[in-house]
Amino acid sequence: MDVNNFPLLGELDSVDGSLRTGTDICYIGGMAAIRGIREIVQAMGYVTHHGLRLNLVGTFIEPEVEARLRASVEWSRVQAWGQQGRTGVRQVLARSSIGLVTLHPTVNYVDALPIKMFEYMAAGIPVIASDFPLWRSIIESAGCGICVDPLDPKAIARAIDELLAEPDRAVQMGRNGRQAVLDRFNWSIEEEKLLDFYQAL
Length: 201
Fold this sequence. Notes:
This protein has 201 residues and is of the alpha/beta class. It contains eight helices and six strands.
């Protein structure tokens, strides 16, 4: 039996599911090369929408990667918030129009269910995610985002530009993702599975 770490219903209710008037996008979670942070920052150099800002919430795991990225030209379009509590995460999600989860294709990730992807969905924002079969099946069935090659900064940038250029489509993707969390990908459902398992012991 699998019990998945899905979002708590109601935790992100202050996020109304519409595309924000600002041009922020976000990545939430630990930052490391294997988690795609280099390609995400590099993508900011290819995005054509002026004024776009990438909000990073979390801490860098590799100081050398952080140092190189902070010295890059693309870093001028980045706002690093460091580690944040749930209120801070909610505030960043509230000002974001897209959530990024472009982890590298490693054995630990291709069949994983990253909580950040479902938090973006719960917040009502479209997702740009790694093109792994499992992730693609979730995103396509929910109609909540775009899958890309996580090793290609230009592909990530194209997906960002595509969603910013089609706000109505992006808003609908956000709504679709939120509905999928309400229907399927939430802790209330997983909690019932866990309690049923305990009862059966």
